[in-house]
Amino acid sequence: MKLAAIDIGSNAIRFQISTVLDKGPKILFKKLEYIRFPLRLGHDVFSTGKISKESIKKFMKLMSAYKTMIELYEADDYMFCATSAMRESENGRELAERVFNELGLTIKLISGKEEADLINRAIASYLTDHTYLHIDVGGGSTELNLYVHGKKIKTRSFKVGSVRVLEHTDLPVMWTDMEKWIKTNVKKSYGRLISVGTGGNISKIFELAGKKPGKTISLTTVKEVRDRVEALTMDQRIYDLQMNPDRADVIIPASSIYIKVMEWAGSKSIIVPDVGLKDGMLLYLLEKNQKQKKLNFSK
After folding, report:
1. Which end of the chain is more exposed for a tag (fewer CB within 10 A), N or C?
2. Rounded Cα–Cα distance for residues 62 and 69 (Å)
3. Each residue of 158-172: pLDDT tens digit?
């Protein structure tokens, strides 16, 4: 079975198609193709409230290209999900309708809770019965999920993201709200708290710290890497650290969000599994198709 997931984020749009390997107790996804296109929808939406004509033009070309990839790889199923930038834009739903009418592709504008639920599918295998605070920082929003004894007890989405902070469109009240939520819900009685970080920026910080996915780094190390990157010019980040330009400018704002959340929660370490929204989407598609297969078999 081949499955495709398209994550329409605020800073970039990601496409991944994988084949499902199901020959034992553990199901694996073998990546066949991965494309990350730097179309920053959040730049338009967080400053003007809508997606610009130029961005729409590129967006339609990109959706057409992704449709072609799905057809060429003969995917059995696919899923397009749009997050904060597109769901908040005045013309986001109109654009989704245009994509459906012209290309026959359905784009789902998911809520912050739906986004968190999908990502949680991907990180579930990394969690034990400890206390965790899952932090997912995107371009337009930050999703927080609190796990106690392996069970999710609280979840919340905040309009604080790397592109918003970079372009100074984040509101102080949202930072205050996030701090209050953390300090209210993360209780000392839960014991030692471990953070779980997802998102391209924390993965890059993890890589720069010289760690492998799934391992743990300390808050101190996160700060040290942040400070080291912040001391570099944009050119140095791009050429010396091999960052994409649209990563090089948001990595510091994103780092600041992870650091603040960890400090407010009293978390001293963070696990960074190499998974994200697209991985949760692939798992959702797999479960959906397995259920359908069982229904068809029972008829």
Report:
1. C
2. 11
3. 999 999 999 999 999
User: How many structural domains comprise the chain?
Assistant: 2
Domain presence at residue 207: yes
253: nearest Cα among 164, 151, 185, 150: 164
Q: How far, in whole angstroms, is CA 222 from its chain's centroid?
A: 19
**Quick one: 78 and 128 in the same domain?**
no
Torsions phi, psi for 253 (to 5 deg)? -55, -40
Q: What is the pLDDT of residues 262-280, one digit of tens each?
A: 999 999 999 998 888 999 9
Q: How far is CA 104 from CA 1, 64, 67, in A?
A: 22, 10, 9
Domain that holds residue 184: 120-277
- Residue 273: both structure tokens together: 């599994």
Domain boundary among 77, 92, 110: 110
143 domain residue, yes or no: yes
**Domain co-membership, 142 together with 260:** yes
Number of H-type helices and E-type strands within the chain = 13, 11
- pTM reported for the whole predicted model: 0.89
Measure the CA–CA gap between 109 and 2, rounded to whole angstroms.
23
Q: Is the domain of 186 the same as that of 255?
A: yes
**Burial state string for 216-246 with b = 16 or more CB within 10 A and e = fewer than 16:** ebebebbbebbeebeeeeeeebbeebebeeb
Question: Do 67 and 188 fall within a single domain?
Answer: no
